[in-house]
Structure formats: C-alpha cells, structure tokens
Amino acid sequence: MVPPQLRRFLLPDLNRRFVIRLLLVALATVVLFTQALVPLRIEGRSMEPTYKDGGFTFCWRGRYLISEPARGEVVAIRFAGQRVMLLKRIVGLAGDTVEFRNGALFVNNAWVNELYVRTPSDWNLAPRTVEAGKVYVVGDNRTVPLDRHQIGQVERERIVGGVLW
Amino acid sequence: MAGLVVALVVAGILAARFWFSDERAIRNQLAVIEAAGSKDAAEPPVEALVKATRLANLFGDPCRLTVEAVRHTGSYPRKQIQERIVLVRSFYTQVQVALHDLAIDLPENNSAVIRGTIRLRGQGTNEAIADVQELRAEMAKIDGQWLFTAVEIVQVLER
Lengths: 165, 159
Prior knowledge:
Largest sheet of chain A: 7 strands, antiparallel
Structural class of chain A: alpha+beta
Radius of gyration of chain A: 21 Å
Order of helices and strands of chain B: HHHEEHEEEE
Number of domains of chain A: 2
Order of helices and strands of chain A: HHEEEEEEEEEEE
CATH class of the largest domain in chain A: Mainly Beta
Shape of chain B: globular
Number of domains of chain B: 1
CATH topology of chain B: Nuclear Transport Factor 2, Chain: A
Number of helices of chain B: 4
Number of strands of chain B: 6
Oligomer: heterodimer
C-alpha cells in the first residue's frame, strides 16, 4: 500500500498548478546548468592526474565574480563559446616571469613546488613576462612534450570560471 | 480556430525565411567542413580526393589565411589550398572534425563574419591526436555561393 503523500508526489494530478511548477523547475534547471554550473566532460590527458580523461566536473561561473584568479587554481578557459573549454592551472599572474628549467617551474626566478605534478618532465622554456590583463596557464601532465602541450598566457576575460572539485 | 491558422501561417513564414536565408546557406557550407574534413579508417584514396576537392571549393580563389600563433599571413590560390588539405588529411589514419559555438554575423549584403571553435579528434600514424582552435573567418557571396575569403586561427594561449 503506497502512502497517499508518496502517491501524490510520484503521480501528481496534471493540473494547471503542477504544469506551472514543472515549467519553473525546468527553467531554473536550464538557467542553473547553462549560466552558473556548466557541466564539463573531460577529454584529453593534459590535466592528469588531477583530472582524468573521461572524468566529469562542473565549471562554477561565479568563482571570479568578486575575486581574481590566483596561482595554483584550475580554471576553465573558453574558445569561441562555452561548448569546448580548456582546463588549465594558473601558474603566473600579470607581471610575473614564468620559466621552465629541466621540468621545474620557476615563477619570478623562484622554484615552485608543484605537488599536483606527479611525473618528471624535461620541459625547458625561456623566461617570459605575463602581460597585463592576462594569466599564465599550464596543464598538470608534463609527460606530454612541451611543443604539443597547450600552455601560455591567456586573456583574463577568457576565464569562464573555476572548477567545482 | 482562426488563431491557430494565423499561428501556423506565421510559423511557416518564419521557417521559410530561415530555410532560405543566407545564414542557413552559410551553415550548410560549414557543415561541409565537418563532413568532408572527417576521415574514416578505411577511406579509399578516391574518396579522399573528392573530399579535399569539396573542402577546397569552400574557399575563394585566392583566400587569405592567418595563423596568429606563428604570425603568418598569406594569400593562397584554391589549388594550393586543396593540395595542403590532401597533405594534412594524409597525416591522420582517422579523424573527426567538429565545429562548435558558431556565431554568424552578416554586417552587410553578401558578406559574413564567422566565429567558432574547430575540434579535431583522431588517430595519427602512431598516436592519438586531439586539437582545438578558435576560428575567425570572413565569407563572401560569390556567384551565389558563400565562400571563405579569409580564415584566421586565433591564438588563445600565447607561449
């Protein structure tokens, strides 16, 4: 015997009030998952081991509404729109000098202990200064040869948000 | 009943306007990039040539190509573009081309500006290949056909 309250919840009367509630819930869901929490299906290995190929997370668009991106944070970077985005980690802010020496990251000539990097690399990248209004981003997977890895400085306005986890 | 008829007529007019619009024609051309750019593992050489020709026919003769990352701009005849398409497609044993987030502006008659993201996923001779680039392109209506007159690969990350 199904309790009446559960029965009403599972099989509600299709009256006008129910339809309005259903439409409002649908509208709220669309707004939430297109404007605030954008679902991200991860494809590619550039952020391994932090984010694995085939994984799933959300881009939280409110992350940088009242604060600025900081070093060490993982951000979603848009291309022409939001259907395809890059997940990268910020290693340098505007004015910083970024450099790789035999796989080790140096920011402003100081070695950075990157606990999220688990594999050694042989990357070498001459020092470069991050321009105003930009941040420098790199993937966590350094086993990919540098010339095939998408890294570099990107306009701040291309950062859509941070990742939820 | 009259309201329903009016609604159907209005919907029909709107659908017809979209169906025969320049935007629709441009989207059809862009769909050719996805269809003819993609390659199956067992693609016969003749089909490869036909697809390269279809792709090359999307370009004006000549067409300006710009790659921001290497600061290169050049104007290339259609024949040369076709040869390059054949060469690039031969690097892949299998590839899937997809366009996303397309925005089409028609600032004046017979010209259009397109922005979008192009994504390649496939298999090279020895390794998996995945690439994403932002595109900005200009198209012009030439002899009734929308053709690319300029294509630019936008640099999103600058080393």
